[in-house]
User: Fold this.
Amino acid sequence: MNDPIRSYCENVLDSDFKLDPVTSQEFFDRGNKFYLMFEFHDAVLDFTRAIELNPRFTLAYVHRAQARRYVDFKGQEASRDYFKALELEPNNSRIHYYFGASRLAGLDSASVHLTKSIELDPTFYLAYLERAELTLSDKNGRDSQYKTVVRDYDVAISLCPNNIELYIRRAKALEIIGEINLAIKDYEYVITLTPDNDSCCMQLVELRLKAGELDQALSLCRMCLERNPHNYEVKNKLTKVEKIILIKHGLLEIDNEILKFPASFEAYHRRSLIKINLNDQVGALQDLNKAIELNSEYAPAYYQRAVLKMNSDDLQAGLIDLNYAAQRGNIEAEEFLKNF
Assistant:
């Protein structure tokens, strides 16, 4: 659960507060202490007492709203508190931010309040960050939406350039929209500031692989392993990179073979298997089509094409190829068809 109030309470953790409060402020301070101790029911009681003593205590409504989220999971009482706080201070950027960040009124309403927070205070970087995270949480998001996410991260970074986490989050958004090279730059910047950050190094390795930069990915893995030889994640990543490089070398050899013997249907079939290992499904399908074009009786190509089609949810076309393969004596196809 997103909790934008906790950081505020942590700022008053070491301040004096009364065990037996009398004033509205004293009840509010003790409520914050209960909040930090995860005693949310007691926090709600103290924030309520603070409001009773001062019905215009806006921040008490906001903090009670957040505490109520942990007590009343439907969030109805919490929403009412946020609305009351906004009634008292409709142009308070922070209240719009807190309400939006809570997402109590749904994603659309959250976006409206976060945008309002930004309009009221364009220098409040947390509102940009939260709006970006909100958009990323939309499972039906489109590329155009993700581009707005990147713009929000851009502004947040311009306002808070020393926050490393912002660069990491922007890199992930850039990767989603296919801006791999820009994502690589963000991770490289983070690593220059925190060279021991193995997690970021491994993310950068994956991006290097996506960009086809195998040598750079290999060097980065070796550098991380030299620094921390007992990191099993790095060891596994190094093994993966080395395997991909070997596969790529094999692909190059078959490319040369096809140049010399363009009618070699077996070479096209072998190259398709390598492309499957490299997650190049489109290229693999093209090679299988070519192998079948060169030799319409070549059963292994029909079988492999059937598997590809069925993995792509084209069941009917896959079954047709399976039958072709089985009719030409492919044992794997015959065994597969027994399940249908």
In short: The radius of gyration is 29 Å.
